[in-house]
Design a protein that fits this description.
It is a single chain. 47% of the residues lie in helices and 14% in strands. By secondary structure, it is of the alpha+beta class. The strands form three sheets. Strands 1, 2, 3, 4, 5, 6, 7, 8, 9, 10 and 11 form an eleven-stranded antiparallel β-sheet that branches. It has a seven-stranded antiparallel β-sheet with strand order 14-13-17-18-19-16-15. Strands 12-20 form a two-stranded parallel sheet. Strand 2 (77-81) and strand 3 form a beta hairpin. It starts with a helix and ends with a strand. The structure holds arginine (ARG) and glutamic acid. Arginine (ARG) binds at residues 93, 213, 216-217, 220-221, 331, 334-335, 650, 653, 669-670. Glutamic acid is lined by residues 77, 648-653, 669-671. Belongs to the peptidase S46 family. InterPro entries: Pep_S46, Peptidase_S1_PA, Peptidase_S1_PA_chymotrypsin. One of its GO terms (molecular function) is dipeptidyl-peptidase activity. Its EC number is 3.4.14.-.
C-alpha cells in the first residue's frame, strides 16, 4: 500500500511538472504559440503554418469533418482528401450506414464490398455533410464583455447563447460559410470555427466486411488488430466548386490541397500526428464523477446492452437477411458497450479514483483560505450525492426504456411529427416524409426480434430500479399480465409493429385522427416513460448538472492557477484538433510486449472459415499464397495496422495519421483495450491509438479490388 501511494505521488508530481508527452488534443490555431517547438523536437519537419494557416493552403484544408444534415457541427467521423478530385478516405465503420443502406440481398455490398467502376457509378448519400475548416477565432473576450458578475447562471447562459448566435451570423454574413462557437476549457474560453460545408458526398468504394470489419466486434477495441477499416468517398461540388445539393451535374470537388501518401514505411519511435475531430473527453472530472461512471453509469448501461446484444446476435446468426438488417445496429450497440467495459477496467487498474482523491487533497490544502475555491470540492460532493439515484433512473429510462425496443422510439418520432404544426399546414408533404422514413425503418426492422428485446428491457427495468422510479402505468401493465404477455399484446395491437398496418394508417391519418395514436400501446409506453422522466427525473437532474457545470468552470480555472507552469489542453468537443506522439508498442501485462505493427501473415493466422469474424475472403488467401504484394511491403511483409501514442477518441475515426513530413501513413480507427480509459485519464505507458497502415489500404484497393484507377488519382511518395 505504501509503495503504491508513493508511486501515485510520483506520478502526480510528474503530471504537474508539465503535460506528459503524448497527452493532449491541441487547438490548430494555437500550435504556433504552444506546440510547434515540442513537435519539432519530437521530429516533425513542418511549420505551424503548414498545418494551419488562413493565408495559404495548409494541411487543415484536406481534413474533413463528416456530419449529418441538420447537425453539421457534431462530426461523427473524420475523413481526409487524397486527390485533386476530392477523393477521400475514412473508416469502413464510418461509412457503414452508407454501405448498408445501398445493400440488399442481390447487391450485398456489406458482404462483398463495392467499387465504383467510374465516377458515374459512385453512389449518392443524401444527408451526409463534409465540413472543411476555413478559419478559427478566439471569441472569449467578445463573449465575456457581455457578461456581468451579477448575472445568475441562467442569465449568463442565455446571454452567451445570444451573443454567440450574433457573432456567428456576423462572421459569415454574405458568404456561403457556416460558423459555430463552442466552449473550451469548461467554458473558460470560446472559439469560433468557420466552415465550408459540402453536401454531396458519394461512396466510391468499400472492401468486403471480411476486410473492413475483419475481427468484428470480437477484436474491436483490441490490439493486435488486423482490420482494414477503410472506405473511399468523394466530395462533389457545383460547377463553381462551391457546396451544392446533390445533382447528377455536380463536379468532383477541387481542393486547395490534399494529402500525399507515403509508402516509405515506419519504425518504432517515428513521429506521428493525428489531425481530426475528437468528440468528447472528460479529463478534468473530480473523483466523485469518476466514481459514478465506474460504479453506476457504466455497469448498468453495460448490463442493459448485454441483454440487447444477446438477442440481436442470435437473430443475426439465424438468418442472412437479419444479419444485413441488424449489422449496423449491432455494431453501434456493441461499440460503446465494449468500450465502457474497457474503461472500467482501466480506471480500476490505474486507480484513477484514488489518484484524483489525492489530487483533490492537495487542492484542498492549496485552496484553504481562498474564498473562491475553498468550498468547491464540498459543493461537488453534495451535488454528486444527490445525482446518484437520478443517474441510475436515467440510465434505465433511456437505455432500456425510450431507446430499448425500437418500436418505442419509432412510435414517438411519428407521433411528434404528426402532432406538429407542419403537419397541419402541409399534410401531404409531411405524410410523404414520414412514409420515406418508414420505408427506411421497416427495411431493417424485425418485429419478432424487437418484441424479445422489449421483454428483456422491461424485466431489467423492473429488477434494477426501485418501484418509486418506475412509471405507474408500466408497473400496472406488467403486474397484470406478466412481461411476456404484455409485450406480445403490445406488438399485436400496435399499428407500428407492421409495415402494412402502418402504411394503411398513414395514408388516412389527419390532424385529428392522429390523436388516436395516444392509445396505441407502443406510444402509450413511450409516453408514460417520457412523462415520468419529465416530472420526476429531468428537472432535478438538469438542475444538478447545470450547477456542476458552473463548478467545472471554476474547478479548471483554479487548477490552472494552482499549476501555472502546466500546459493544459481543452477537452475534446467535436472541433478540429492535433494530437501528436510516436509509433510505439507497449506492455499490456507482465511478461508481454506488443509490437507496434501487424501483418497480412497475422490475418492468415486468424483465418477460420467457421467463424464469421475471421473468415478471410478467398481471393485474399490466393493473393497471399502467390505473394502478389506489389510495392506494399516492408521487410517482405504486407503491413496491416500499427499503434502509436496519439491521444484520440471517438470522432477521430477516419482521421489522417501523418508522418514527420505531413504525408499520410495511416487512417486512425480505434484504441487498444488496456488504454480506453484515456477519455478520462490518459496514461502514456499504455494508451495507444490504432491505425490501418496506408499501404494495406493501397494493397486492398489495388490487389483485392482491382481499382487501380483510384491509385492513379493519388500522389504516392517514398
Ligand atoms: N471501436 C471503434 C470506434 O469506436 C471501431 C468501431 C467499429 N467497429 C466495430 N467492430 N464495431 O468507433
Ligand atoms: N472508433 C472510434 C471512432 O469511431 C475511434 C476510436 C476511439 O474512440 O478512439 O471515432
Amino acid at each position: 500500500m505504501k509503495k503504491k501511494s508513493m508511486l501515485v505521488a510520483m506520478a502526480l508530481l510528474l503530471g504537474w511538472m508539465g503535460c506528459r508527452a503524448d497527452e493532449g488534443m491541441w487547438i490548430p490555431m494555437l500550435l504556433k504559440k504552444y506546440n510547434i517547438e515540442d513537435m519539432q523536437k519530437q521530429g516533425f519537419k513542418l511549420t505551424a503554418e503548414d498545418v494551419y494557416s488562413i493565408n495559404q493552403a495548409s494541411l487543415k484544408d484536406a481534413v474533413v469533418g463528416l456530419g449529418r444534415e441538420g447537425y453539421p457541427f457534431s462530426h461523427f467521423c473524420t475523413a481526409e482528401i487524397i486527390s485533386d478530385e476530392g477523393l477521400m478516405v475514412t473508416n469502413h465503420h464510418c461509412a457503414f450506414d452508407m454501405i448498408q443502406s445501398h445493400s440488399s440481398l442481390e447487391h450485398n455490398y456489406l458482404r462483398d464490398g463495392f467499387w465504383a467502376k467510374d465516377k458515374q457509378d459512385e453512389l449518392a448519400n443524401p444527408g451526409i455533410t463534409a465540413s472543411i475548416l476555413v478559419r478559427m477565432e478566439d471569441v472569449t473576450d467578445r463573449i465575456n464583455a457581455q457578461l456581468t458578475p451579477e448575472m445568475s447562471a441562467e442569465e449568463r447562459n442565455a446571454k452567451i447563447k445570444q451573443v454567440a448566435a450574433r457573432l456567428e451570423a456576423e462572421a459569415v454574413k454574405g458568404t456561403n460559410l457556416q460558423a459555430n462557437i463552442k466552449p473550451y476549457f469548461n467554458g473558460n474560453q470560446y472559439f469560433m470555427s468557420v466552415f465550408k460545408i459540402y453536401k454531396d458526398v458519394r461512396l466510391v468504394g468499400a472492401p468486403p466486411s471480411a476486410v473492413g470489419k475483419f475481427g468484428g466486434d470480437t477484436d474491436n477495441w483490441v490490439w493486435p488488430r488486423h482490420t482494414g477499416d477503410f472506405s473511399v468517398l468523394r466530395i462533389y461540388a457545383g460547377k463553381d466548386n462551391e457546396p451544392a445539393n446533390y445533382s447528377p451535374d455536380n463536379q468532383p470537388y477541387k481542393p486547395s490541397t490534399f494529402f500525399k501518401i507515403s509508402t516509405k514505411g515506419l519504425k518504432e519511435g517515428d513521429f506521428t500526428m493525428v489531425f481530426g475531430y475528437p468528440g468528447t473527453t472528460k479529463e478534468y472530472l473530480t473523483s466523485y464523477a469518476v466514481e459514478q461512471i465506474q460504479d453506476i453509469e457504466n455497469p448498468h448501461k453495460i448490463a442493459i446492452r448485454t441483454a440487447k446484444l444477446n438477442i440481436i446476435n442470435a437473430a443475426m446468426e439465424s438468418d442472412e437477411l437479419l444479419r444485413i438488417k441488424y449489422a449496423a445496429k449491432a455494431a453501434s450497440v456493441a461499440n460503446s458497450w465494449k468500450k465502457w467495459q474497457g474503461e472500467i477496467k482501466g480506471l480500476k487498474r490505474f486507480n484513477t479514483v484514488e489518484k484524483k482523491q489525492q489530487e483533490e487533497q492537495a487542492f484542498r490544502q492549496w485552496a484553504a483560505g481562498k474564498p473562491a475555491y475553498a468550498h468547491l470540492l464540498d459543493q461537488y460532493k453534495s451535488l454528486y450525492d444527490k445525482r446518484k439515484d437520478l443517474i441510475l433512473a436515467q440510465a434505465y429510462l433511456t437505455e432500456a426504456g425510450k431507446q430499448g425496443a425500437e418500436i418505442v422510439m419509432w412510435s414517438a418520432k411519428v407521433y411528434n411529427t404528426l402532432g406538429s404544426k407542419e403537419f397541419i399546414n402541409n399534410p401531404e408533404q409531411i405524410r410523404e416524409r414520414i412514409k420515406a422514413a418508414a420505408k427506411e425503418f421497416y427495411k431493417d426492422y424485425d418485429p419478432a426480434t424487437d418484441c424479445k428485446i422489449l421483454v428483456e428491457m422491461l424485466k431489467l427495468y423492473n429488477e434494477n430500479l426501485p418501484a418509486a422510479w418506475i412509471p405507474a402505468e408500466v408497473q400496472a401493465a406488467i403486474a397484470k399480465k406478466g412481461v411476456e404477455a404484455y409485450a406480445a399484446s403490445l406488438f399485436k395491437n400496435s399499428v407500428f409493429a407492421s409495415e402494412e398496418a402502418f402504411n394503411a394508417f398513414i395514408d388516412k391519418v389527419d390532424g385529428k385522427s392522429c390523436r388516436k395514436l395516444e392509445k396505441d400501446p407502443a406510444y402509450y409506453l413511450y409516453h408514460s416513460i417520457d412523462l415520468f422522466y419529465a416530472d420526476n427525473i429531468y428537472p432535478e437532474l438538469s438542475r444538478i448538472e447545470n450547477e456542476v457545470k458552473v463548478l467545472d468552470k471554476t474547478w479548471l480555472a483554479a487548477q490552472m492557477e494552482m499549476h501555472p507552469d502546466k500546459h493544459f489542453y481543452a477537452d475534446a468537443n467535436s472541433t478540429l484538433r492535433v494530437a501528436y506522439g510516436k509509433v510505439q508498442g507497449y506492455v499490456p501485462c507482465d511478461a508481454v510486449y506488443y509490437k507496434h505493427f501487424t501483418t497480412l501473415a497475422g490475418i492468415m493466422e486468424k483465418d477460420n472459415p467457421e467463424i464469421y469474424d475471421y473468415d478471410v475472403p478467398q481471393r485474399l488467401r490466393e493473393i497471399y499464397e502467390k505473394k502478389d504484394f506489389g510495392r506494399y511491403t516492408q521487410d517482405g511483409e504486407v503491413p496491416v495496422c500499427f499503434i502509436a501514442t496519439n491521444h484520440t477518441t471517438g470522432g477521430n475515426s477516419g482521421s489522417p495519421v501523418l508522418n514527420a513530413e505531413g504525408h499520410l501513413i495511416g487512417i486512425n480507427f480505434d484504441r487498444a483495450w488496456d488504454g480506453v480509459m484515456s477519455d478520462i485519464q490518459y496514461n502514456p505507458e499504455i494508451c495507444r491509438n490504432i491505425s490501418v497502415d496506408i499501404r494495406y489500404v493501397l494493397f486492398i484497393i489495388d490487389k483485392l479490388a482491382g481499382a487501380s484507377h483510384l491509385i492513379d488519382e493519388m500522389v504516392i511518395v517514398d
